[in-house]
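thoughts on these tokens:
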Amino acid sequence: MLETLQDVCEVTSPYDGRVLGVVPLSTPAEATRILATAREGAAAARSLSRHERGRILESAAAAIGESREEFARTITAEAGKTIRQARKEVLRAVNTLRLSAAEARRNSGEVIPFDAFEGSEDRQGWFSREPLGIIAAITPFNDPLNLVAHKLGPAIAGGNAVILKPSALTPLSAQLLAGALADAGLPEGVLTVVHGGREFAEEIIRSRDVRMVSFTGGFSTGESIARSAGLKRLSMDLGGNAPVLVLDDADLDAAVDGCVSGAFWAAGQNCVGVQRILVARSIYPEFRRRFLLRASLLTAGDPMEESTDVGPMISAKAVAEVKDKLDEAVAAGARCLLGNVREGNVLHPTVLENVPHGSRLWQEEVFGPVVMLQPFDAVEEAFALANGIDFSLHAGIFTGSLNAALDAADKLDAGGVMINDSSDYRFDGMPFGGSKYGSMGREGVRFAYEEMTQPKVVCIKRGPA
């Protein structure tokens, strides 16, 4: 199930740099053989009964649940996510696979009422949901288990084969998940885990055998994939820059707690993490005071320690990129209220205000433990600030007014609006995706399943009585 080839890449801890393992690297020349294996796997996957697909996914979920500490420690070691956060990710991955198992058994199609249309009274039939064939799945480092499960679970439920390319920074969690699926009885070739550079990935992506590319990652990489893929389905989650509005009637304690968690969970390496907090001017001083106090109490450091709240970012390069944006914003007039302190790959929780709206820090996805505070006078001003960004996945609003909450749900340009909750809330069964430039398709088990399958109509015409 894992390609074993001559060249290897070391996997290292983002916290202390120790070598955790190695993974084999594929070359462009080997893409032909990998695709041939996937074609055989697609035939095997298609022949599996829905019951068998569900059983395999349920068995894998149970095995991961039984070994959850091993999975959590692997996530922490290779991704730097704190051990408490990693344990939650494992539980989410278990739930993702169980939801996928249910989808394999449930979402089979439906009857079509042909006789509801004049001239078709002698016809009856249905449509079924059929597999696409081979799906190429490319996953990021920040949720190295659950985001892989979000690709594999629905794809297997739908009867597809998958060529999985996990992040080279965090491949070990994906390998553990692949092993659990193999032990549960997934046929050989249905899942092939590969690693390699851009040229290798392009060989896979552009192949006409591949019917869909499901990608989670950065915008520039997504744009490159779209150019290479040709005429096939694309599902892409390309990141966001989440705003959260705090109105003057909000529960301040709930808003502070939700925004602190949403801003600094997984060291801010979260595509729906809180990045811009827009606060009604009348309560801004008090919100600012409470938020800074709460954020200052977070412990940053060794992610294996149970007391740690914020672990390292994924690499020195990632920290440097965030620091560059911070330094540019401060030079342009932003005020740093907390943090902006680096220890190795650990960037301490950082809070700013007066950030220029034309700066990269305001306009782009930061993907680090950095959040910006901004007061507003009128809620329409807050909507304009929230929506003035090209990338949009989730938004949030804290308010005691149902009318204000529903107004925000209508006016915020986002794939999801979380009311009285952080923008980073996500349930693995809900549709997940963005509403602006570059967003394609939806994740969330049921919705990904439908992206990864296609309807086939069967129509029967009855003969004369």
